[in-house]
Specification:
mainly alpha; three-stranded mixed β-sheet; 15 helices; globular
Length: 318
């Protein structure tokens, strides 16, 4: 957690301390509750290895009539999906504990998946991995499954229990608790965009709730006050994220200009109110330089806002 490193990086660093060559490693992930796997219930998994041959060999070894195993070389995507989904499950459980309804839970999980995808792409993951079994697939099982430790922990938090009391009463580990705090540090180190807390409101909100900064209900009220924005983009890599950040910067500049205009208008209205006069009298009193009649602009150029060029919608870009 403190290293801000992914699991394969920690393992490689640890095994190579003696100067020895680290053999190819394989990682297994996906929606797979151990109880169901042990009882032979149908399951699908992903085997990830930077060595594609190793990934395929392990997948073939695991495959059976009841278990399908798929191979990938995207170790980063598999690890990011496996970590972030636990935090999303805490959020889904909190929503359940607050009795917010299925609409809210579905929205929380979906927006949480977007945060997973954004962080994964920044770290070099492939979008297909994040939207597959190891990402969204594992998230669905963890967020809605009755055996999910993280969902159950979140539900108890939503009902008002303290996290220390919950952990003391459990004989299992809810990985999302330490992961939420670790992800905050990782995001701050990785995502250099403006107001990262607005880019990852689910992850930041869960961390704040765990740390007692906000109550569960306050956390979800803050999510509902999240700035309006376009819903999602087909982000394929870090280059597209950089382009979106540039667009966001331009929108912020535009919003600042609009705020300046509003301030000027507010000052003008204050003067009108103080002098108890309407807009026409104020313009004439301010002098010819401020009068529309002294302007060289034609009446057609003084068109209403509805007839002028359409402004960009001041929504924040993801």
């Amino acid at each position: 957690v403190a290293s801000k490193s992914l699991m394969h990086e920690v393992i490689n660093e640890t095994l190579s301390e003696g100067g020895e060559t680290v053999p190819p490693l394989a990682f297994i992930s996906g929606p797979s509750f151990a109880d169901e796997v042990s009882r032979g219930k149908a399951t699908a998994l992903v085997v990830a290895s930077e060595d594609g041959r190793m990934a395929r060999r392990v997948a073939a070894m695991l495959a059976s009539k009841r278990l399908r195993a798929y191979a990938t070389t995207d170790v980063v995507g598999v690890e990011v999906g496996g970590a972030v989904k636990n935090v999303i499950a805490l959020a889904a459980g909190i929503a359940e504990g607050l009795q917010l309804g299925m609409n809210a839970r579905s929205a929380i999980v979906t927006r949480g998946c977007y945060e997973m995808r954004r962080l994964g792409l920044l770290l070099g993951a492939k979008q297909g991995t994040l939207t597959g079994l190891a990402g969204f697939g594992d998230t669905f099982g963890t967020c809605f499954g009755p055996m999910s430790r993280n969902r159950i922990t979140g539900e108890r938090i939503g009902r008002g229990e303290k996290i220390d009391d919950i952990q003391a009463s459990m004989d299992q580990v809810a990985e999302g608790v330490p992961t939420a705090r670790a992800l905050i540090n990782l995001i701050k180190d990785t995502d250099r965009s403006y107001r990262v807390d607005l880019k990852y409101p689910i992850i930041f909100g869960v961390a704040d709730i765990l740390d007692g900064v906000r109550t569960p209900r306050e956390g979800f009220q803050d999510v509902m006050r999240d700035p309006l924005r376009m819903e999602m983009y087909e982000l394929r890599d870090r280059t597209e994220l950089a382009n979106l950040e540039q667009r966001e910067s331009r929108l912020r500049q535009r919003e600042a200009e609009l705020d300046g205009r509003e301030a000027v208008l507010a000052a003008l209205l204050a003067k009108m109110s103080a002098n108890n006069e309407d807009g026409v009298n104020l313009i004439h009193r301010l002098g010819p330089a401020s009068s529309p009649s002294s302007s060289s602009a034609s009446p057609s150029s003084l068109s209403s806002p509805t007839s002028s060029k359409k402004e960009d919608t001041p929504y924040l870009v993801e």
